[in-house]
Amino acid sequence: MELKFTVHTKIQKPVAEVFDAVRNPDHLSRYFTTGGASAPLSEGTKVIWRFADYPGDVEVEVRKVVPNELIVFEWAAGEGADYNTRTEMKFEQVDPESTLVSITEGTWKETQEDLAKSYGNCQGWSQMSSALKAYLEYGINLRKGAY
């Protein structure tokens, strides 16, 4: 059995705007990386994400970027993990003013501890995609003061 999950959120904005809000650190820091992001998510780069509710730096290794379609990165499978998981963010234009964002993360080891980590990340990506929707559609930061 492969431990992975996918979350989906439909956002009422054009695909280019949604993609930029995830790739661009100026936007990402306004609704997700509450402590900042060191650089854009560009193929072949290592980016540092910081969160007010999580201690330390989180290193993201960007593996693939297809503008307005896909961002793939790897990062540690949790605190103290000796391996990475792979996250794929897909952006699908539903119509000129709507985008479906699908986030899949997987390749956890098949242990109870790693299953628990996967549940935490699934919750985190669900929150991130909801925060992305609120930020783009309504201009608000759902994470502000929540953590």
Plain-language structure description:
The termini are far apart. The protein has one domain: 2-Layer Sandwich (Alpha-D-Glucose-1,6-Bisphosphate, Chain A, domain 4). It is built from three helices and seven strands. The chain is α+β, with helices and mostly antiparallel strands and 147 residues long. It has a seven-stranded antiparallel sheet with strand order 1-7-6-5-4-3-2. The longest helix has 27 residues. A hairpin with a 2-residue loop joins strand 6 and strand 7.
In brief:
This protein is of the alpha+beta class and 147 residues long.
Write the layout of secondary structure elements.
Elements (H helix, E strand, L loop, with lengths): L2 E9 L3 H9 L1 H4 L7 E2 L8 E6 L2 E13 L3 E7 L7 E12 L2 E11 L3 H27 L9
Antiparallel strand pairs: 1-7, 2-3, 3-4, 4-5, 5-6, 6-7
- Rg on CA atoms, Å: 15 Å
Q: How many distinct domains?
A: 1
Indicate the CATH class: Alpha Beta
What's the helix-strand series? Answer: EHHEEEEEEH
